[in-house]
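We emphasize that the prediction below concerns an isolated chain of 118 residues; any contacts that depend on oligomerization or on bound cofactors are therefore not represented. The input was used exactly as deposited, without trimming of termini.
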Amino acid sequence: MTRDEVEANPELIGLLVMRNQLKKETIPAIRILHEAHIRTVMVTGDNLQTAVTVAKDCDMIDRVQRVIQVEATIVPASIHGAQHLQVLYNDPLATPEFIAGTVRCLINKCMAPNSAEI
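Result of the prediction step, given as a token string:
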């Protein structure tokens, strides 16, 4: 069956709406961390736009703040070289030093052996 055949005469059979709602403790907790000058980092497998919206809703980031998406992947060892970390980011204004610092933070703080839950 071709795409044109599948998309011909569509009939709406339902609508699903999902809502991400913050817990009431979230905003005060983020505020306390900021006042204590503790850097907050979000690690999520969620959709980027959802994550940014949640971060803005709980004042983790300002509504006008620029967001840089960083994706780090461990590349296994192969005939082409040793195991290494591949880092991709989406902001042409982000310097390699900034990205390296962000990745170090993720590795050292978020991926530590004793940090099963963040």
